[in-house]
Amino acid sequence: MKTMKSWMTTFAVLAMALCLGAFPAMADDVTDAINEGVNQYKAGNYSEAASQLDYAAQLIRQKKGGDLETMFPKPLSGWTAEDATSTAAGAAMFGGGVTAQRNYYKDGSNITINIMTDSPAMQGMMMMLSNPAFASSSGMKLDKVNGQRAMYEYDAANQTGEMTIVVNNKYLITVNGDVVSLDEIKAYAGAIDFDKLAAMQ
What we know:
- This protein is an alpha+beta fold.
- The protein folds into two domains: 2-67, no CATH class; 73-199, Protein Transport Mog1p, Chain A, CATH 3.40.1000.
- It has helices at 2-22, 27-42, 46-68, 122-130, 132-137, 182-190, 194-199; strands at 80-81, 85-89, 97-106, 109-117, 141-145, 148-155, 160-167, 171-178.
- Strands 1, 2, 3, 4, 5, 6, 7 and 8 form an eight-stranded antiparallel β-sheet that branches.
- Strand 6 (148-155) and strand 7 form a beta hairpin.
- Helix 1 packs antiparallel against helix 2 and helix 2 (27-42) runs antiparallel to helix 3 (46-68).
- The model is unreliable at 1-23 (pLDDT under 50).
């Protein structure tokens, strides 16, 4: 019971600090949920306490997803784009994480950029980027985009390809293209503001 109390208290304090410091606009909703969770915990209603804290954490993830939506580049010349979208999931859903996506179009061509964070899926990609032999054995080629390590694969016959970039060991970016040149995939990857993304809380 003592361990459970320590975990619950630490989680509440850290979550509240995060909300108030990084997301002031959401502070009311998030802190309300945290406070309710603490009250439920003190009353011995552990399931409801956990539910309230999970709700607060989900609000934080949603806010982070909204912030990621602002990180996508504008359409390059001759291209159009849909509005960016995002999804946020807790650890119970495929390991959790926050993902944002934007689709770009030109005639019969399309490119999709995904940005993921806070997901266990990133570990494998970071290992591949840090181990050239492992990346090569998987058929990927290594590259650099604006100073960031990247790996890619491209099928010239079908004009399809994908480039993967890890930023600040925190954000996993994939640029997928269909009926596009490798140069177009690289151009969209290079249009992402990595410094701005790395600075995001």
